[in-house]
Amino acid sequence: MIATLVLATRNQDKKKELSALLAGLGICLRMVEEFPDAPDVIEDGETCEANAVKKATEIARYTGYTALADDTGLQIEALGGNPGVFAARYAGLGANYEDNWRKVLHEMEGIPWERRQALFVTVAAIVQPGFEAHVADGSLRGMIAERPIGDQGFGYDPIFFIPSLGKTMAQLSTGEKNMISHRAIALRKAKIILQTITEQ
């Protein structure tokens, strides 16, 4: 098993979630901010996997440590699959969480409940310096709520409704979310990978 893992994200909310999901592995987690001159990786891939692999590869190359990066997309059927891989910047560069989900709600105005299906997808990539990426994915089906509900979580959580629970993601506790979320599913698979690969 690897000894040190760098989380290749500067998103503080994601960093907390990833740290919680990776707890108990006995791996020393380091944050990309600990490497002040680490590159700001441009997420210009056409898929979540491409973005995750690019981020992990560049941070592993720079730091000399195994790196883990993830990228998440939100696919909404009524919007032709948008925002998709552009979920984090759907309302434009510099947009915040609320800007993004408000744009989605605006575009979904008048769309009936039965046509509000959505899919959250997360792809996590693990890269050891000089080696090919290991990839793990996770997904969660839900619906786009007609208004934001809840004050937990981040991103699109206030408008992503899970019918089986009768709640949005933003109404779930951290523990509940980390049991069922798209990122949790991907990270459970990633933990198995981390347990089986060794530092070269």
Describe this structure in words.
The chain is α+β, with helices and mostly antiparallel strands. Helix content is 30%, strand content 24%. The protein has helices at 12-21, 48-63, 97-107, 174-180, 182-196, and strands at 4-7, 28-31, 66-76, 83-84, 117-127, 134-144, 160-162, 167-168. Strands 1, 2, 3, 4, 5, 6, 7 and 8 form an eight-stranded mixed sheet that branches.
What can be said about this structure in brief?
The chain has 200 residues and is α+β, with helices and mostly antiparallel strands. It contains 5 helices and 8 strands, in the order βαβαββαββββαα. It has a single domain, classed as Maf protein, CATH 3.90.950.
* Unreliable segments of 5+ consecutive residues: none
- Radius of gyration, Cα only, in angstroms? 17 Å
Q: What top-tier CATH class fits best?
A: Alpha Beta
Determine the N-to-C terminus distance. Answer: 10 Å
Number of strands: 8
**What proportion strand?**
15-25%
Q: What number of domains?
A: 1
Tell me what the CATH architecture is: Alpha-Beta Complex
Portion in helices: 25-40%
Oligomer: single chain
Please identify the structural class as seen in this structure. Answer: alpha+beta
Nearest-integer average pLDDT: 95
What is the overall shape?
globular
SS field, number of helical segments: 5
Q: What does the main sheet amount to?
A: 8 strands, mixed
